[in-house]
Amino acid sequence: MNAPGPLYLIAAGTLAAAAYVWWTNSQAATSNPDNSADPLASLGDMMDEATATVMNMVNPTPASGMTVSDAEVSALKQREGLRLTRYALGDGGYTIGYGHYSTNLADIPATCTQAQADAWFADDLENRATKWVRLYVTVPLSQNQFDALVDVAYNMSPRGFKRFADAVNAGQGIDDIAQASVAWVDPSLQNGIQNRRNAEMNEFDNGVYS
Predict the structure, then answer these.
(1) Crossing angle for the helix pair 143-154 and 114-125, nearest 10 degrees?
(2) Dist CA 132 CA 120 (whole Å)
């Protein structure tokens, strides 16, 4: 019997990774501000993550070893703002701390401490942002470009951010998709998102953290 070919092994690995991602996330799935109401959206996110995870096992992305700079941590906290009381967004979701978000009211307490806000931020920075840049962006990045994409990912769903990553990987103008993404959110949030995307693109293009 012939040994399994590389495509077979990748396919098998993808299915195994998808099952693992589903298992680890099924009890703690949350949405980000630009997610649609599609109940299957999280399944697409999990398949994307599983596929990217397997491909990175074979050929890690240039960003796989990068970390967020202190300048980006400060800029991201400033852009998100700190709220120690729960805040309802126009899209039906809720946020607290530094943009800690869910559409499930039970996930967001009425109040929190500074320490809890900092803990959520650290977790969200890794699992809502940095992880996706490392997985999805396959071209070399400068530090400010990596940081700006982390900022974008923090504010989006995985599937939404993947559209940014695909544009970067294809060498397309990221500013164009940044402007288009404003329309992906509820109209009541678009002014704030427009300002956010402008700042992120200035950071990506010019290294300006503000």
Answers:
(1) 110
(2) 17
Q: Which of the residues are catalytic?
A: 80
Contact 137, 63 (CB under 8 A): yes
For residue 61 the two structure tokens come to 């992305």
| Mutual angle of helices 70-80 and 114-125, in 10-degree steps | 120
Q: What gap in Å lies between CA 75 and CA 118, rounded to an integer?
A: 15
Task: List alpha helices for the chain, DSSP H.
Answer: 6-25, 41-58, 70-80, 114-125, 131-136, 143-154, 158-169, 174-180, 190-206
Express each pLDDT in 112-171 by its tens digit.
999 999 999 999 999 999 999 999 999 999 999 999 999 999 999 888 899 889 999 998
pTM for this model (two decimals): 0.77
Side chain identity at residue 94, one-letter code: Y
**CB 67: neighbour CB atoms within 10 A?**
12
The residue among 141, 151, 133, 162 whose CA lies nearest residue 197 is 151
